[in-house]
Design goal:
The protein has 17 helices and 14 strands. By secondary structure, the protein is of the alpha/beta class. The strands form 2 sheets. The chain has an 8-stranded parallel beta barrel with strand order 7-8-9-10-11-12-13-14, surrounded by 6 helices. It binds zinc ion.
């Protein structure tokens, strides 16, 4: 008992001497936190000293923590809630002189949104499984639970699929990439003065890698949402199998697209073999990833090849479609049903909801319109109003490859500006009619990597902005405000830097 009192006094003295605010710096802020007098002191980690119980009245992923000088009690209704309680406890505890201290608090907590995501593009640049695991560790710490993994693109194909060895032989290696600090998003495929001439890859994940990563995610209550882009953004796959393009003669070099930007050569939707290929890829992906959602892309698909392709034109006739504009909704319907038959829901970028698409398809809203007077999240709000579930990730709040407005920033961005405060101000339900708000599943921060070369600039761009988004997705409109966030973000930035994460300054 003497030790307990001594510990409590020491903490109080240490806090007073350092002149720091004693308020706990939990991130994201818990829904309700009441500070009490006193400190709990124990040997070893606080999580080992805690008592755990089940309380079915606590919401999914939610928890209750009661810390008194006598002990720690944790209650939750599910394993995820218990997991998040432990993460909160780890943020509360401090150790020194052989003991662990936890300030006495009462916490009741649960998330506003069930989709709290971190997106990573591994196609423009590849980071590998150790970086992905480090991201999962941080996601768990900040109660993020969806990892949207962008695995296929015009510029790279990153998974080895049984039966299709050419995918990684041709699709996972670029003979050259865009030079550091150069913008090369338009122009021809061989914009020579902007290319570095350095071979990139082959970089891809084997089945053993994928299974290892899936397990690592499962242990942290993270669902991986793999993305296989179709019918556009497939040029790396077409480099491997040119026969699945409308114009195979455009792919004689058999390399992924070298510069950034959108490729005009897309999947030939008149070719049954091309569709069978995508089915086989998705079949494999459904077997590897246990989550209930598969992302099938659907964005930025030019239709110019379909207009003149005899096979695509034959498909339009055979299916009774009006013209080439109807081909994308036709293939979307096909794959929504294909995934449903495998117990999965399709997710896609908002363009893929254009046309007559089953309501079970989930939209991912990224485009914004400023033409409407009221709000910017037009496409997502419209999709939710029509009856689709929607994940909100509008580019002017959630695109972390946009500049963060720092005074001195050593890194290069794609353009645009998304400051930390802008991230924090995000409301995923802004402009959504009241009766459609329940269809907003949440949101995510998107880490596109055209101009992000390695884990150092990836971390710099992701953090601290992901801290702000984690609080937006956890608390929604109940978030305590930017000033309070900044106080806690400073503490967490120090923690991240101490743990080797190249977190950017707050301003
Ligand atoms: Zn075609």
């Amino acid at each position: 008992m003497k030790k307990l009192i001594a510990g409590s006094l020491m903490l109080a003295v240490a806090i007073a001497a350092a002149g720091v605010c004693a308020a706990p710096a939990v991130m994201p802020a818990p829904r309700r936190l009441v500070e009490k007098e006193g400190v709990f002191v124990c040997k070893g980690a606080a999580v080992a000293a805690a008592r755990y119980e089940t309380d079915s009245s606590i919401p999914r992923e939610g928890y209750r923590i009661s810390v008194t000088e006598k002990g720690i009690a944790i209650a939750s209704s599910d394993a995820a809630g218990r997991f998040y309680a432990v993460e909160t406890l780890k943020q509360l505890e401090s150790s020194g002189r052989g003991v662990t201290r936890v300030p006495c608090v009462e916490i009741e907590d649960s998330p506003r949104y069930r989709w709290r995501g971190f997106h990573l593009d591994e196609c423009r640049h590849f980071f590998g499984k150790e970086v992905v695991k480090e991201i999962f560790d941080l996601m768990a710490r900040y109660k993020l639970n969806r990892f949207h993994w962008h695995l296929t693109e015009d510029q790279g194909w990153r998974i080895d699929v049984p039966g299709y060895p050419e995918l990684v032989k041709y699709g996972a290696v670029r003979p050259a990439s865009v030079k550091h600090g150069k913008r090369a998003v338009k122009g021809s495929k061989a914009d020579a003065d902007k290319l570095n001439g350095v071979k990139y890859g082959p970089y891809f994940y084997t089945e053993a890698d994928l299974r290892e990563i899936v397990e690592y995610a499962r242990e942290r209550h993270i669902q991986i949402v793999p993305e296989i882009e179709l019918p556009g953004h497939v040029y790396a796959a077409l480099a491997a199998y040119p026969q699945y393009a409308c114009c195979p003669e455009n792919l004689t070099e058999r390399t992924p697209r070298l510069v950034w930007g959108i490729e005009k050569d897309v999947l030939c939707l008149g070719n049954d073999e091309a569709i069978k290929f995508m089915e086989n890829v998705l079949d494999y992906v459904c077997r590897i990833f246990p989550g209930d959602v598969i992302h099938i892309g659907g964005d930025e698909c030019p239709q110019v090849r379909w207009q003149t392709c005899p096979k695509c034109q034959a498909r339009i006739k055979a299916e009774g479609l009006k013209d080439h504009h109807d081909l994308q909704p036709w293939i979307t319907r096909h794959f929504v049903k294909f995934l449903e038959a495998r117990g999965k829901r399709a997710l896609g970028w908002d363009e893929y909801l254009l046309g007559d698409i089953p309501k079970s398809a989930i939209g991912m809203s990224w485009r914004e319109s400023r033409s409407g007077a009221g709000h910017e999240l037009v496409s997502g709000a419209a999709a939710a109003t029509r009856g689709h579930d929607v994940v909100m990730t509008p580019c002017s709040y959630c695109y972390l490859d946009y500049g963060q407005g720092l005074k001195d920033d050593p890194f290069f961005y794609i353009g645009g500006r998304v400051t930390l405060e802008r991230c924090y101000s995000f409301d995923p339900c802004a402009g959504v009619p009241e009766d459609a708000k329940s269809r907003i599943l949440g949101g995510q921060g998107n880490n596109w990597t055209e101009y992000t070369w390695n884990e150092f600039d990836l971390a710099w761009k992701a953090w601290p902005r992901m801290l702000a988004l984690s609080e937006v997705f956890w608390l929604g409109e109940a978030k305590p405000g930017f000033a309070d966030f900044l106080r806690r973000a400073e503490v967490h930035r120090s923690w991240l830097v101490r743990h080797g994460v190249n977190c950017a300054p707050l301003k």
